[in-house]
Amino acid sequence: MNTAVIHPFILSLVTFVPLGGGLLLLAFPRRDRDIKVFALVVSILTFILSLHLPVHFVPGQAGFQFEVNAQWITSPNIHYHMGVDGFSMWLVLLTTFLTPLCVMMSWRSVHGPVKEFFILLLILESAMIGVFVSLDLFLFYFFWEATLIPMALLIGVYGHERRIYAAVKFFLYTMIASVFMLAGILWLYAHTGSFDFTVIQHAIQSGSLQLGSASKWLFLGFFIAFAVKVPMFPFHTWLPDAHVEAPTAGSVLLAGVMLKMGTYGMLRFNLGLFPEEAHRNAPWIVALAIIGIIFGALVAMVQPNMKKLIAYSSVSHLGFVVLGIFSFTTAGIVGAEFVMLAHGVSTGALFTLAGMLYDRRHTYEISEFGGLATSMPVYSTFFLVTTLASIGLPLLNGFVGEFLVLSGAFRANHIYGILGATGVIWSACYMLWMYQRVFYGTFRNNANRALVDVNARERATLWPLVAAALIMGVAPLIWTRAIEPAAQAFVSNDNTAAHMLPGTPATRSRAAQASLELHESQVSGQ
Amino acid sequence: MILWLIPILPIIGAAINGLLGRKFSNRTVAAIGLFFPGLAMVYTWWIAAQFFPNPHTIVQTFYDLTWIKAGAFSVQYGFQLDQLSMLMALIVTGVGFLIHVYSVGYMAHEGGYYRFFSYLNLFMFFMLTLVLADNYLLMFVGWEGVGLASYLLIGFFFLRDSASAAGKKAFIVNRIGDFGFLIALFLMIQHFGTLNFAQVFDKVNGLPAETAGAGLLTAIGLLLLLGATGKSAQIPLYVWLPDAMEGPTPVSALIHAATMVTAGVYMISRSNAVFNHAPIAMGAVAIIGCATAFFAATIGLVQHDIKRVLAYSTVSQLGYMVMACGVAAYSAGMFHLMTHAFFKALLFLGAGSVIHALGGEQDMRKMGGLRKYIPVTFWTMTAATLAISGFPGFSGFFSKDEILYRAYLHGSWGWILWLVGLITAFLTAFYMFRLWFLTFFGEYRGDQGHDQHAGREEHHGHAPHESPKVMLIPLVILGILSVAGGWIGIPKVMGGSNHFEHYLAPIFEQHAATSAQAAEAEPTAEPSGPPELLFSVAATLTAFAGIGLAWLFYYKRRDLPEKLAAGLHGAYVTLENKYFVDEFYGAAVVKPIVLGSTYLLWKGIDVGIIDRTLNDSADAARDVSRGFRHMQSGNIRSYAGWVAAGAAAVVVFMIWRGAR
Asked: Which residues in chain B have Cβ-Cβ distances shorter than 8 Å to A329?
């Protein structure tokens, strides 16, 4: 069978199979078991379909692959334009990898109508994949906002005590921020007559679209939408609330995938469309990223609630991503993408593990635990490996990304790398301290004495995550092979843009150019 | 030969025991746990048999696999065998295997047998990766990995809060050092574009020595030194090692004495090209090592816990090795590393045997007279004690002598290093024989009657008894090595031929030569100072003085120490409390960070300012909307009023437009 035949359809399939499954579920009778099995089958099928992408992806080829581009609406001029490069392909895979695990971890822990839960989960999967594969800004924005609704419902309906507050905060905050991006998208449409990413990018690069003074506002519009989503300091306060209240699967997808929509957006749009502005604004963005790394870690350290701790640790980890992106180095950008993937796996695993504990004890308070290594040895081991992955132990996934990001940031500016590297100390502090309080020592609370260790289903949920963490750490090249050309396209793309963009201070672009050349010559070893 | 097989073998054992060991019997666990490191040891010997006739550098990569790549920078799974890594591999597999054997007996009555051997095998994997790597990043893998194994094994008795706290402390303090290591790597990547040893050293040798002022190489050297102070427990990051004694005693022997803690010394020796070009960094290395040697020895004088004495002694001896590196006497440092691995591993294992005999007692005040009960332990420990004290003919004598001699020859201030080192040697002989007399001589001071001691690792409450054979055989082998291990490095003046230095010369001299051309010649070549033999005599007299004083205090006149402690109360309390350094770090670093994070960052900035601003603006928006909501009252007349107002506004606007 010639698999190339389905290249033009594969992205649509991967995107809409979950949605189709969700719609079919609507018609299902309320037999919980059947619903769960069906949701699992659909999500696994989606994962298998998505494997087509890395298998047939051509790493060296520039531009987007598996493209499909058709007129959707003639007026306004909206295209059904999808395609992936190294960045988006792996984020799609991350989504399709995590979703079946989310179905499995929700097997017995849905507090509310079961059917709707899994429908929402599948719709959410479609929307998230859609965000990553869309190459039409209208389509992108559609999926972007579409993720909000199922996630807000998952938090608001299936969450814990303060779920309404958290859901509303999450929904309003991220939606209001997105409005700025919408304004930017509309401005671009008004000036180019197209929502198509490649068309707009070409128009800007070739100089046929003069952004002029608007470029600053366009950059900021997109940036704010993404910064809230990431979330970057100081826009992060919705995240701890959302995580603490969200059901486990919601937390996993929120931290694992949705946060990366923000950093992905920065890569694709802030760097892809406005490289000059990205350079100009880099200093304060990097400053915020570094504050996020350190602030998030320090605040995580003193959290009494396990989920809040993991949430703040996400602020810290995502700070690494932003730092890498705005270092404008190959290592930094490849590393940023890798941190996204690694964080998706290891923080997904951490939330999964926290959820398993919640299923047993109905609390996330760290002080409630202690001595769990005695009663739940297998669980403790899974937690330990995940902890080590999260704090960046070499040969596990966290290290590769952090190392690349920091080396890239260091090259961009020594102080960036030095401040960012303190993160390796802080992460060990907060994670190991939590691990000690939860697992070591004797039982302080008798309820922990009788806890049952992970069962077969839970083990089946955890093994793929741990295995992924190990493989990503040992053989990161599987991933970075496809990422690197995309990253280099950014670095060189921004190189040419510095030449081509008229109306910008010549000295600045020459300086940027010179520093870039310097970097590259240093890489190649003087 | 396949180099990567050496580290891979132990991790197979770790994986089998770690994944399946819970269901195995102790015998099976031990068999697996011994088989793989044992095989690695034998394989290392086989490689050594081919290597020694014709020593040269061999580089291999694991199936040509690249680990990390970004742009022009890439790192492979590459392994390197040369004189230095051959030596380290032999030490690690040899001493490591002996300690595995010992553990079979020592841990026999502990829970989590499979866990212990799995961790121990895991340690071997990372340690062998560390010493066999052909680039800094793979070395860093081992570097962090041994830290992990150390964390797991220190906290092995995790029911004890002190054990888990010590494990965490070790990991975090080491991470501070790793931070320095990482930044050094970033500098190398930026300036050399590679982390491969051969390529980095090539580039370094192409640079002029930084004699005039600090530059790139000085920065790299100082950052590497920071990494070494973490792993090799030097000032200011040594604080984790004494606490690490919470781990089972074989772990203290293997990780916290013989192998892992020497990683910093190995790393500095490996990087000798960098340090030779950076005199300022070299000076810092020498001073840190010298200061640590002395400082830790003084603390060791007054500790009561037998393992703590040995822990501070380890810190002190590591100081010697680091100091040796700082005076470019790398091979002397490596020599001491090797002999120290023998005698310190033996001391710990012997101490473990003592603790085992006493059912978990570690306080030397409750020991005494044990030579009658545990003769094999006594005699082997005697050999090790003589070795560490620098008794002529024993292994430690030759290596320590070499370091002190080379320190003296180092530049204009070398005599200070030598003097402090000599005083430290005196202190070492004193505290080691204090330990020896307190443990093995006099009357047994423990309570024999009770069945339950308040001790740790505890099982027996009867009269002291000798350990089983499986524990004694490693003691005997290490005892022989502690005596004879130094004979391969006997200097010329004593009729030896110093095989050891010649063997390592290719590693250290190729870089020294190039830097010597660039810088003015360091007085390292042929010495012009006082004859070497004079130094040996001085060192020997010092050792005798220390031993004699210990004999006086702890054998002849047992009342003297107390009187002295009472007389020098302030100094004694300061030493007994280890100069209050832990308390200082707690008050000056840990507490401010925790309190600041809680009250300033979290409750202050995060909740108090950022989130409050957000919620307040949301509330404000809601209040404003609430105002508008009143417009929508359902009252027809009010609607009509709004319509009229709107119409009026439109009319006014049109008039205004028209008027323009």
From this structure: 71
